[in-house]
């Protein structure tokens, strides 16, 4: 299991590949000689990522799908097999955000978030396991969040989904310990992606409040996706069980360890000062 994961000549399936970390990681994988199956609902963004990856000289397939479409998710591994003949790396990167106080949040929006952030991760992983287990070495990478380490006020649903991804991934890693299938859990901090702009807010929230919340969220997103992608890539190659990305995520992890119950009293002040 400690053996380095060689990317050249392998095939990776990356969800959320049209932008942000998913796009940056896809291009980094292509530069390592890894063939790509790229999935996203944004066809235009997906085509741009795929075109840039093909310029690196690797085979690329594009799969336009909505992760809330269960049948499309379950059919994806067969499409990857048809295009590439196998699968060695699965990166469950796609995710959405939902802000606002829990009592003001519509339950339908929580269902939407859980379907993408958690259920699609579990569903796609389950569907891909036969392909991943067919060879001597494979890797699963699941993206949680710094909010899978700490749970801020106003992020109840999102934190619940990312804590769940953490639990699922850790259990999966324990199940396949000692086999050729490695499992990596990723906790990115504030990466400058479109997740804040695309987040849903409570439906009754007025426009001014929504804009204020969005601005506060975006101020926390400072790291370039390319930096996060390189950190994830190193984690894949070394088969790291966990990758914590960014000083903010590492600081949150330390504070949570030191103050497992009262960490928010300290972190709240630092968030307020930004």
Topology at a glance:
Layout: E1 11-15, H1 20-31, E2 35-40, H2 43-54, E3 60-64, H3 70-84, E4 89-92, H4 107-132, E5 138-143, H5 156-175, E6 181-188, H6 207-219, H7 225-238, E7 242-245, H8 247-258, H9 263-272
Parallel strand pairs: 1-2, 1-4, 2-3, 4-5, 5-6, 6-7
Helix pairs in contact: 1-2, 1-7, 3-4, 4-5, 8-9
The chain-level mean pLDDT equals 89
Anisotropy-based shape = globular
Count the DSSP helices: 9
The succession of helices and strands, N to C, reads EHEHEHEHEHEHHEHH
Share of residues in strands: 5-15%
Q: How can the largest sheet be summarized?
A: 7 strands, parallel
Gyration radius from CA atoms, angstroms: 18 Å
Query: What helical percentage do the residues reach?
Result: 40-55%
Strand order of the largest sheet: 3-2-1-4-5-6-7
Distance between the termini: 42 Å
Structural class: alpha/beta
Regions with little confidence, pLDDT below 50 for 5+ residues: none
- Count the E strands: 7
Describe this structure in a few short sentences.
The protein has 274 residues and is α/β, with parallel strands linked by helices. It has 9 helices and 7 strands, in the order βαβαβαβαβαβααβαα.
Please give a structural write-up.
It is a single chain. The protein is an alpha/beta fold. Helix content is 49%, strand content 14%. It is built from nine helices and seven strands; from the N terminus they run E-H-E-H-E-H-E-H-E-H-E-H-H-E-H-H. Strands 3-2-1-4-5-6-7 form a seven-stranded parallel beta sheet, with helices on both faces. Helix 1 links the parallel strand 1 (11-15) and strand 2 (35-40). Helix 1 (20-31) packs parallel to helix 2.
């Amino acid at each position: 299991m400690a053996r380095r994961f060689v990317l050249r000549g392998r095939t990776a399936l990356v969800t959320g590949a049209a932008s942000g970390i998913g796009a940056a990681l896809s291009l980094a994988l292509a530069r390592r000689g890894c063939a790509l199956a790229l999935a996203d609902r944004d066809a235009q963004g997906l085509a741009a990522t795929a075109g840039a990856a093909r310029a690196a000289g690797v085979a690329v397939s594009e799969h336009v799908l909505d992760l809330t479409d269960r049948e499309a998710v379950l059919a994806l591994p067969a499409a990857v097999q048809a295009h590439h003949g196998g699968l060695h790396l699965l990166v469950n990167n796609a995710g959405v955000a939902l802000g606002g106080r829990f009592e003001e949040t519509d339950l339908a929006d929580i269902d939407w978030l859980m379907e993408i952030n958690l259920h699609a991760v579990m569903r796609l992983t389950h569907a891909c396991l036969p392909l991943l287990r067919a060879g001597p070495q494979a890797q699963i990478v699941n993206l949680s969040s710094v909010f899978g380490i700490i749970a801020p006020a106003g992020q109840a649903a999102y934190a619940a989904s990312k804590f769940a991804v953490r639990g699922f991934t850790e259990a999966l890693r324990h199940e396949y310990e000692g086999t050729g299938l490695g499992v990596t859990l990723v906790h990115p901090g504030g990466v400058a992606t479109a997740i804040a702009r695309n987040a849903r807010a409570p439906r009754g929230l007025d426009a001014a409040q929504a804009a204020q919340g969005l601005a506060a969220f975006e101020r926390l997103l400072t790291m370039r996706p390319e930096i996060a992608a390189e950190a994830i890539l190193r984690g894949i190659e070394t088969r790291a069980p966990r990758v914590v990305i960014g000083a903010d995520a590492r600081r949150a992890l330390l504070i949570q360890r030191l103050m497992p119950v009262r960490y928010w009293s300290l972190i709240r002040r630092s968030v307020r000062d930004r």
